[in-house]
Amino acid sequence: MTTNTSKSFNGVLKRARGLPIHALVSATYYHCIALFLKRGEDTLKWENDAVSRFVPKVMIMLGNREAAARNLCRPVQINRTEFSCYDDKNIAYCVLLTDDQCSCSCHSMILYHVPCAHMIASLASIRCSYEPLISDFYTISSYKNTYSGSFHGIPDSTG
Ligand SMILES: [Zn+2]
């Protein structure tokens, strides 16, 4: 969806550009190790802080969406599982909340696996939490598993 990952990786390679291939691969390898160590340390800090079971970046995103949800008009409940939610430009969004499907016509849930402001407002109108809708991909334990891989030193090929 974005080129952020490739741009980030390009930033790593920018410093190694012009090096022989062995040095280029080594620089990339050791950069990955440093990244995994840093993110592993971040995970330990988040676990010790015990603020949330989700990573801080998602908590910030959800805070912004909660604020946006508070600025929406009160959603209109169409039936037991459907809501119409209007934004400040009077654009209607259809929110569907069933046991097996939670969606919104803004498609944010499909793209990010995090409830949008329309879903948060709809759930708030029936006094339900949106937290069960947040993907487990964003939990600190998933993040920890992602960066739990181990690396090993590479012996010098000339020795
Ligand atoms: Zn939406």
Question: Any descriptors?
Answer:
single chain; 159 residues; alpha+beta; 2 domains; four-stranded antiparallel sheet; binds zinc ion; zinc ion binding; zinc
What is the topology?
Blueprint: H1 4-16, H2 21-49, H3 56-70, E1 76-77, E2 82-86, E3 92-97, E4 102-104, H4 108-112, H5 117-125, H6 140-146
Antiparallel strand pairs: 1-2, 2-3, 3-4
Helix pairs in contact: 2-6, 3-5
The chain binds zinc ion.
Zinc ion (ZN) binds next to α5.
Detailed description of the structure:
With 159 residues, this protein is of the alpha+beta class. The protein folds into 2 domains: 4-50; 56-139, no CATH class. It is built from 6 helices and 4 strands. The protein has helices at residues 4-16, 21-49, 56-70, 108-112, 117-125, 140-146; strands at 76-77, 82-86, 92-97, 102-104. Strands 1-2-3-4 form a 4-stranded antiparallel β-sheet. The chain is elongated. The model has no long low-confidence stretch (mean pLDDT 90). The structure holds zinc ion. The site of zinc ion has 7 residues, from helix 5.
Estimated helix fraction: 40-55%
Binned strand content: 5-15%
The span between the termini is: 44 Å
Question: What strand line-up does the widest sheet have?
Answer: 1-2-3-4
Task: List the ions, cofactors and other small molecules found in this model.
Answer: zinc ion
Number of domains: 2
**Series of secondary-structure elements, N-terminal to C-terminal:** HHHEEEEHHH
Q: Write down the overall mean pLDDT.
A: 90
What is the tally of beta strands? 4
Instruction: Note the total helix count.
Output: 6
C-alpha Rg (nearest Å): 22 Å
Kindly name the structural category. Answer: alpha+beta
Largest sheet: 4 strands, antiparallel
Low-confidence stretches: none
Q: In one word, what is the shape?
A: elongated
